[in-house]
Design goal:
This protein is mostly beta strands. It is built from 3 helices and 17 strands. The chain folds into 2 domains: 12-143, DNA ligase/mRNA capping enzyme (D-amino Acid Aminotransferase, Chain A, domain 1, 2-Layer Sandwich), CATH 3.30.470.30; 146-221, OB fold (Dihydrolipoamide Acetyltransferase, E2P) (Beta Barrel), CATH 2.40.50. The strands form 3 sheets. Strands 3, 4, 5, 6, 7 and 8 form a 6-stranded mixed beta sheet that branches. Strands 12, 13, 14, 15, 16 and 17 form a 6-stranded antiparallel beta sheet that branches. It has a 5-stranded mixed beta sheet with strand order 1-11-10-2-9, with helices on one face. It starts with 11 loop residues before the first strand and ends with a strand.
């Protein structure tokens, strides 16, 4: 199932601001909860099929969350529309609970902004959206924490914190504590990845911090 004919890559991610995601309409996209798991490289074999899934760790041990199908009966199906692959995955998911060797769950789905709001309300990370008529390859992503490329404009307290501006337009957006092994590399004008809970009406990043999704690459340019 992992022969070279299956080139499975992560979808290209287009980040949607939280305020826009909360206004997502239903209908055009498949909306799935975004999970903070480890991408299963090469796919997850199950019942003669190859699933796209994330490896999760919970109180009951390791389990998997499946969100699409990559291959069925030896045939690559990544070129088929999302609606077809999702329907097939739902059919396959009927057998998830019958396997004693592996615990797989179907990714939670819902409708637009209402679903995103519900996911955030129960502490979830966010939602991914896939065009119903498109093949595998691109997704929209909206999550509680947004990532902002920022430029360092001033140091505070030595080099332990810095004032920052949005790299896109130079607008001041607050300050951030600098931690980690790359502090000595940061200069005025350096580009860093900062995450926070969106922007305030004044353009400040809510609760800014160095991006934790990429702990070794928050420093973009120095």
């Amino acid at each position: 199932m992992t022969s070279p004919q299956y080139t499975i890559t992560k979808p290209r991610k287009v980040v949607v601001p939280l305020n826009d995601g909360l206004r997502w309409p239903g209908g055009k996209f498949l909306y799935l909860e975004k999970y903070d798991g480890a991408w299963v490289s090469g796919g997850l074999p199950f019942g003669g099929n190859l699933l796209l899934a994330e490896r999760m760790k919970g109180l009951r041990g390791v389990y998997y969350v499946a969100h699409s199908v990559a291959a069925m009966a030896g045939q690559n199906v990544l070129h088929t529309p999302t609606r077809w692959r999702w329907a097939e995955l739902q059919r396959i998911a009927v057998d998830f609970g019958r396997s004693p060797d592996i615990h797989i769950e179907l990714a939670a789905s819902g409708s637009g902004g209402e679903f995103l709001e519900a996911v955030l309300a129960h502490g979830g990370e966010g939602v991914c959206a896939f065009n119903w008529d498109a093949p595998w390859g691109e997704m929209l992503a909206c999550k509680r924490l947004e990532t902002f490329p920022c430029m360092v404009t001033e140091f505070c307290g030595g080099n332990q914190s810095a004032r920052i501006a949005l790299a896109s337009n130079g607008q001041p957006c607050g300050g951030v504590a600098l931690r980690g092994g790359k502090i000595e590399l940061v200069r005025i004008g350096s580009l860093i990845k900062v995450e926070g809970y969106g922007l305030t009406t004044a353009g400040m990043i809510r609760e800014p911090r160095l991006c934790r999704d990429t702990p070794r690459s928050w420093l973009i340019k120095y």
